[in-house]
């Protein structure tokens, strides 16, 4: 895991990071989750929640690899100064109801438990009667 500086939050599951001491800066697609698109219901809320969590906090990135589009895939962690613990950003997004578990790309059963809890408590996008998963939204836009 490497310390990174988040330059900006692109959307609810993508950030642009800079590696300190280098000129390297990359966009990172957060692994295992899929947040609503910005043009979709709750898309801007998901982005704002991610930005609020990251806001001026120390962050670390575990690079997992690249996706089929060549984007860097990784898991992002934020140090919570108040509690003194590292927060798994992906699990935060799911638990808060701002992202779906991307079942095709994660095998961690804890993600599904967090999503079930978010649904039961109608957190975030689960306030909607029938939230549309981003992969369906993208597929419908292509038609």
Largest sheet: 5 strands, mixed, barrel
**Number of E-state strands:** 8
Give the CATH topology. OB fold (Dihydrolipoamide Acetyltransferase, E2P)
Q: Could you give the order of strands across the largest sheet?
A: 1-2-3-6-5
User: What is the architecture at the second tier of CATH?
Assistant: Beta Barrel
Share of residues in helices: 25-40%
Q: How big is the Rg? A: 15 Å
What would you call the shape?
Answer: globular
Helix segment tally: 4
> For this structure, what is the CATH class?
Mainly Beta
Which series of helices and strands comes N to C?
EEEEHEEEHEHH
| Low confidence ranges | none
Proportion of residues in β-strands: 25-35%
The N- and C-terminal alpha carbons lie at a distance of 40 Å
Explain this structure.
This protein has helices spanning 43-54, 89-95, 109-120, 134-142, and strands spanning 2-11, 14-18, 25-30, 33-34, 59-66, 72-80, 85-88, 100-101. It is of the alpha+beta class. The chain has a single domain, classed as OB fold (Dihydrolipoamide Acetyltransferase, E2P), CATH 2.40.50.90. A 5-stranded mixed barrel has the order 1-2-3-6-5. A hairpin with a 2-residue loop joins strand 1 (2-11) and strand 2. The mean pLDDT is 94.
Provide a compact summary of the structure.
This protein has helices spanning 43-54, 89-95, 109-120, 134-142, and strands spanning 2-11, 14-18, 25-30, 33-34, 59-66, 72-80, 85-88, 100-101.
């Amino acid at each position: 895991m490497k310390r990174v500086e988040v330059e900006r939050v692109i959307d609810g599951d993508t950030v642009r990071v800079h590696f300190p001491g280098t000129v390297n800066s990359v966009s990172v697609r957060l692994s295992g989750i899929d947040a609503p698109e910005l043009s979709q219901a709750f898309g801007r809320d998901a982005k704002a929640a991610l930005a609020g969590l990251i806001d001026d906090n120390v962050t670390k990135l575990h690079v997992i690899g690249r996706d089929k589009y060549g984007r860097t895939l990784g898991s992002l962690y934020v140090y919570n100064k108040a509690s003194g613990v590292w927060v798994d950003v992906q699990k935060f997004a799911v638990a808060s109801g701002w992202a779906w578990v991307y079942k095709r790309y994660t095998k961690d059963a804890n993600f599904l438990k967090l999503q079930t809890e978010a649904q039961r408590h109608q957190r975030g996008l689960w306030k909607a009667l029938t939230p549309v998963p981003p992969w369906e939204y993208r597929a419908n836009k292509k038609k």
